[in-house]
Amino acid sequence: MSRYRFALSPRWIVSHLFVLALVVAMVSAGLWQLRRLDEKRDRNDVVEARTAQAEVDVEGLADPGDFDAAGDLQYRRVRASGEYLADEEVLVRSRSLNGAPGSWVLTPLLLDDGTAVVVNRGWISNSGALEAVPTASRAESGPVEVSGLVRLTETRGRFGAEDPAEGVLTNLARADVARLGQQLDVAVMPFFVQLQVQRPEASSTDPPKPVPAPALDEGPHLSYAVQWFIFTTVAVVGYPLILRRRAREVEIEELPDDDLAPA
Hints:
- With 263 residues, this protein is of the alpha/beta class.
- It folds into 2 domains: 2-43 and 219-257; 55-199, no CATH class.
- It is built from 4 helices and 8 strands.
- The chain has a 5-stranded mixed β-barrel.
- α1 (10-51) runs antiparallel to α3 (221-254).
- The longest helix is centred in the first third of the chain and has 42 residues, at 10-51.
- The chain is elongated.
């Protein structure tokens, strides 16, 4: 093993540590992709199970402000009847559709029992110039009936834009039901409805386009995981071969000149 003594030099030790860290990082990335795949499959199972249930009326489905109870309602099919509070609707910034920049339009729907449910009426094009719902996309007056999916309120994580805590806002960084409810005079259900069907249909000049239902595909996570594990295999197999080749070169370099001379 003396020919591998070179591998104990500081330069090669740094190389070993770098390759080791690289292998650990690639394995971790592959395992993370597999965890994401499991999460996607679990979510798909929930979506399929809950959307298969019968459509229910949104009134009484949860107590206003009880955001903890709303988790079990995610993706349930619901219907609601009432009148839109068009003067209270807001934009949700930075929402794309098929790669195009835009915004969601959140509109409170006043229910017969005096509470309101926020309806995501859909997507409108917005390159950043719009700070409020344009006239052409505003909700119409009069009674409507909507059907859609329950979606959970969105809250800020460790990163991301933060909306002002006070004042009346015309646009939000996310679909934050609590923040929108803060500027309403009625109690608000602890979730929003992602609109699929409205009766009668929207009569505005440029109504929002309904946001598609959650896709049930598994995404690229499995292929990404396989790629990371292939990269790991290349490193684990390839690096010892590099060491072996270098050891042979060192062995040849250390041979006496007479041994290298032609016979």
